[in-house]
# Entry
Amino acid sequence: METMKGRVAVVTGAASGIGKALSLAFAAEGAKVVLADVEDEALTETRKEIEALDATVLAVKTDVTDENSVGDLCAATLEAFGGVNILCNNAGVGGGGLVKNQQLVDWKWVIDVSLWGVIHGLHHFLPHLIEAEESHVMSTASVAGLMAVPGLAPYNAAKFGVVAIMETLHHELARDEDANVGVSVLCPGVVRTNIATAQRNRPEHLRRQSNDAGSASAKAPEEARSRNAAIAAALENGMDPGEVAAKVIGAMYDNRFWVLSHPELLAEVNHRNQELANLENPTLISSFTD
Ligand SMILES: NC(=O)c1ccc[n+]([C@@H]2O[C@H](COP(=O)([O-])OP(=O)(O)OC[C@H]3O[C@@H](n4cnc5c(N)ncnc54)[C@H](O)[C@@H]3O)[C@@H](O)[C@H]2O)c1
# Structure
């Protein structure tokens, strides 16, 4: 992408963490920013922060799990600015727990937000990105989309899916002479955000159920709680989201597909790939294992 000045950038999950940092960075580059998030108060707060930078900003309360809500976000963007140049499918949630302890609602919530959210974004925005003279689409996956971190199966499944979709899109758009759309996938390591409290946005009907009919929602089992506590502690020492946003902006200018916040983690990804190449059973050297 040559310039972001005057371009229209849509960011989902824009009210916190990486999405908020991306939104601030696009505003600093002179883009018009569309903030989409399910969390009302934080969304308003972020809009005010960006307005204070004298940037053009639109905030649209959006639930990325809802196809119609993302459709409304797209319509609001086109109505306000007449087109779109940058889409960041960034909203995502996660939580820990062994596969044997997952309830179906655990799978459903994580995959609805972190995978279907990306699919809804592409479904509604891609035709308009292709129409634009120059555009770029980025989706936030994770290193958990490149290697299977134990205790995070729904998250891994969603993030492997995001990587697969974006890689496919990259190949397809590279062959499409009518499109001038750059494609990137962001695979962060540990970043200092609010993802450890992602449950704050979990809808009531997808909360864990107790086995006793009629009783209150079930707590996560002890192993999941201690895993989540370890993730929360690691996040406190994670990378600043502003640093991650700067890497994304750089990748968009340079038209780079892979954006890794912590490239040193590739050693672990390469270990997996080498075992696959040798048809050996997977083993872990991961810093994410306990
Ligand atoms: N923080 C990390 O260490 C890390 C590592 C790898 C990947 N990621 C990914 O980065 C992305 C951003 O997460 P973050 O770490 O900044 O977390 P965060 O919790 O700080 O921000 C996520 C935002 O998404 C919003 N959101 C949640 N559900 C939504 C929904 N249904 N519709 C719209 N918005 C919704 C939240 O309100 C929040 O503002 C996610 O996709 C996450 O999986 C984060």
Residues 8-190+220-265 form a domain with the Rossmann fold fold (CATH 3.40.50.720).
